[in-house]
Amino acid sequence: MILCHAGLTILSLVFPSATLADDFSHRLVLVSEAYDKNLVAIRNESGEILWKQRTRGAGHHDVHLLDNGNVLLQDGWSRLVEMTLEKKIVWSYDASTMNGNQGKGVEIHAFLRLDDGLTMIAESGPARLIEVDRNGDIERTIPLTVDHPDVHRDTRLVRRRANGNYLVCHEGDGKVREYDSQGEVVWQHVVGSPVYGAIELKNGHVLIASGGGNSVLEVDRDGKTIWEIRGEVPGTDIELKWTTTLRERENGNFIIGNCHAGESNPQMLEITRDKKVVWQLRDFTHFGNGLAAAEVLTEKQSEQVRARLASIPLAVRVNDRVLQPKK
């Protein structure tokens, strides 16, 4: 369907193969994009930006809506910020100056707020995962194995398995490695391309976004490929380019980020196990060809965000003021 909002024409498609239970009309997407955009935003299915924050520069490879309703975002390659929807900064971390990194090359490409309140930060350059408290003090360090050290390519996304281990995407090595709490590699899969994302599925397999490999594949613990789309989505004209973020929905569908694919292709899509596309985000009015980090909010999250935004003045939640360091 073609939707018009405030004089803008935006394409947001829902396909006939979606079931009646899949009502996407209330879906919200949290988007984080650098390049020439430098923008973190929440968008609805009508193409309206409900909330946005301009950042100071490049470095948008991960983003999260936290359980407390705040947004955990990047403000450059080395700085993280937790911000309320009212735009109050309640926590920040600068990897370029903290915990022994002063004067060293360091970039952040992944981060998570853990259940115990600590924040996991993946540091490329130092080649480590650290879990820090609210003061920025390190509670745990997990050293990473890196075959081809590179401050920009040591890591991409990092996600936690149900057993507490971390799945780390090593872009420069073209591998996904699973680390235990001591930094031991207990499993790995050679992707053979600049890999971006990997998550554990409910069945225990690992779903991998191969980044520059233009594919998404599901592998079992023996490394056997169970499911795959590569190059293009079967039966469509959708091309896969730099595949990035991943999510498994409760219904078994996969949500996939599709970066650098050009305006003729969606920036995100949802696909069923039988490879039918049921939803896609294609919004080159607000976002660009470098949209790498995004999170489709759950129904519950979307309801909570809408409720909070209802009490925030439009001039506060949607403006072009650039994020400034906390004084």
Describe the structure.
This protein is mainly beta and 327 residues long. It has one domain (14-310): YVTN repeat-like/Quinoprotein amine dehydrogenase (Methylamine Dehydrogenase, Chain H), CATH 2.130.10. It has helices spanning 299-309, 314-317, and strands at residues 2-5, 8-14, 28-33, 39-44, 49-54, 64-65, 71-74, 79-83, 89-94, 107-113, 119-124, 128-132, 138-143, 158-160, 166-170, 175-179, 185-190, 197-200, 206-209, 215-219, 225-230, 242-248, 254-259, 268-271, 277-282, 293-296, 318-322. The strands form 6 sheets. The chain has a 6-stranded antiparallel β-sheet, with no helix packed on it. The chain has a 5-stranded mixed β-sheet with strand order 26-3-4-5-27. β14 and β15 form a beta hairpin. The longest helix is centred in the last third of the chain and has 11 residues, at 299-309. It is globular. The relative contact order is 0.16. Residues 1-10 and 13-20 have low confidence and may be disordered.
